Amino acid sequence: MADVTLLFGIGATKAGTSWLQYYLDRHPEVHLWTHKELHYFDALDRDQVMEQIDGLCDKRAGLRARMRDASGAEHDRLRFEVAEIDRYLGLLGQGVERPQAYVAFLKKGRKGARVVGDITPAYALLSEDRLRSMAALGPVTKFIYLLRDPIDRLWSNIRMMAGWKGGSEKDIADRANWIFDRWTRGEEKALAERCDYEGPLTRILSAIPEKDRFLGFYEELFRPETVARICAFLGIASRPAPLETRVHASAPIALEPGRRAIAAEALAPQYDHVHRLIGRIPAGWHAAEVGV
Known about the structure:
Blueprint: E1 5-9, H1 17-25, E2 30-32, H2 40-45, H3 49-67, H4 72-92, H5 99-107, E3 115-119, H6 128-135, E4 141-147, H7 150-162, H8 169-184, H9 189-194, H10 198-207, E5 213-217, H11 218-221, H12 224-234, H13 257-278
Parallel strand pairs: 1-3, 1-4, 2-3, 4-5
Helix pairs in contact: 3-4, 6-10, 7-8, 10-13
InterPro entries: NST/OST (IPR037359), P-loop_NTPase (IPR027417)
Organism: Dinoroseobacter shibae (strain DSM 16493 / NCIMB 14021 / DFL 12)
GO molecular function, one term: sulfotransferase activity
C-alpha cells in the first residue's frame, strides 16, 4: 500500500465532515466509499456489529424500493449503491476484525487514486490504542479531525436528531427542545459523549504523529486557503471547492436564550480544553459568552 495514502476523517459530529466527504469524493485523486460512515472500528470495539448490520439492511431495503420506480442511469446508480452495501456486509458480517480485508475493501475501485479513506465521525470516540492500530494500517495514514463551536455543534447535533422523524418545523423544534432537556438531565449519553473535545483531542495528540494529523475548525473550513491546506496535507492537488454548498444541514431552528445559557454553562470547560490542547480557538466561537 506504499502508493496509497489512507485517510480517516474522525469527526467531530456536525463539524463539517459531510461537506469534506462531498468535496473529496469529487476529487480525481481520492476514492471514498459511496456511502459515508462505515463504522467499522466502533462497531467492532463497542460490540455493535449487529446494530450496524440492521441499519445497513434497512438502508438497502430503501434503495431497493426506489429501484422499482427508477430507470436508466438512476436505476444503475441505485443498483451500484445496493451492491456496495452488499460488499460491505460481506466484510462487517464476519464479526471479527480483518484489517487487511478492510484496507482491501477501501482500495477496491480506486483506479489509481492516491488517497482512499473512511470518514466516520464516531471514530473520534475510539480508544488511544485503537487509533494507534488504525495509524499502523498503512505506510502513510492521515487523520482529519474538525471541531466546531461547542454550543453550535451541540445544537446542530440536536436539530439533526430531531429531524430524523420528519414533520413540520414546529414538530422538529419541539423534539429538539425535548432532546436538549434530556441532555441537560444526563439522559442522552451518546449526545453528551460527542460534546467532549478534551478526550478525543488528548487521544489524537498522543496516538497520531503531528505530521499525520490535521486539526481544523468548521468556522474556517469553507475558505480556499483551508481547502488548500487539507489537499497539501493529503498530498493531492488543490481544486476549487463548493464553498457555498452545505451538506446535510440541520433544520434552521433557533436555540432559545434560556437553553443557550444552560448550554454555555455546561460546555464552558470545552473552550478551555481546546485552547489548552490546540493553542487557540477561532474567531466566531462563543468563548466570550462563557467567560473564556
